[in-house]
Structure prediction request, 93 residues.
Amino acid sequence: MNQLIRILNDDDRETLAWLCKHAGDARVAAAARHLGGNGKPYLSAVCRYLGVRPPMPRQHIRPIEDCTVGDSHLAKIRQLLAQRSQAPSKHHL
Prediction:
């Protein structure tokens, strides 16, 4: 199927798998050939041609990472900046 339809990312791969299961490989391939002409059609065009609306892509949830090292560095930076702003200026205008 990748030879017939333009697949750009993992979401497209998941959608293509869903479409083939939902509409059937033969129908999807026929639609892609019909729309293809001189190139590969986008998956969204194949879906529109078949009159189906694919499900929304899954939201990939990233695991929460330990941020204590970064937080401690930011705290030190804020402390240094606060000290700088409180120090008397050596240059008087």
Remarks:
- The first helix runs from residue 10 to 23.
- The mean pLDDT is 87.
- Helices lie at 10-23, 25-36, 43-50, 68-86.
- The CA atoms of residues 36 and 42 lie 9 Å apart.
